[in-house]
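Supplementary Methods, section 5.1.

A reviewer requested that the exact input to the structure prediction be made available. We therefore reproduce it here, unchanged from the version used in the analyses.
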Amino acid sequence: MKELKTQVYQESDIDTDCIVSFDLIERDKLRQYIENPYLYSRVQHTQTLPQEQRGLTIPAEMSSLFPKSSILWQKKANRYVTFLLREEVTEGFPNNLREHVSRIQESHRTGAIISRFLLCAQENGKTYDFYKTFIEII
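The structure derived from this sequence is encoded token-by-token as follows.
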């Protein structure tokens, strides 16, 4: 988290290959999430920002074990820029995603947005969820 705060908008390789849908009633996926919350991922696209899908990160070699309809996103050979997404844990879940997207779009065309859960913490008396977010540069 400290690195993402100090090194904003660094180009990096995305650290996931595939994201599959996730529902709290799916026991195996729920167990994986509990054991490693960083597997929890959100998939969005800059053209349809309000629409988000939630899922779990899986290795590429496991993607064949899931029906195609459950695959939310698969890695492409594109470039990615990372930043720290902060989302307040309160009604409406306000976050700073639009601000980051706007800043990056000043110099790049963007595509998919992948946000991976890091931690929940308090800042200035408010509770936030923090995500390591990757935005695709196209």
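Residues 27-35 form the longest helix (9 residues). These observations are discussed further in the main text.
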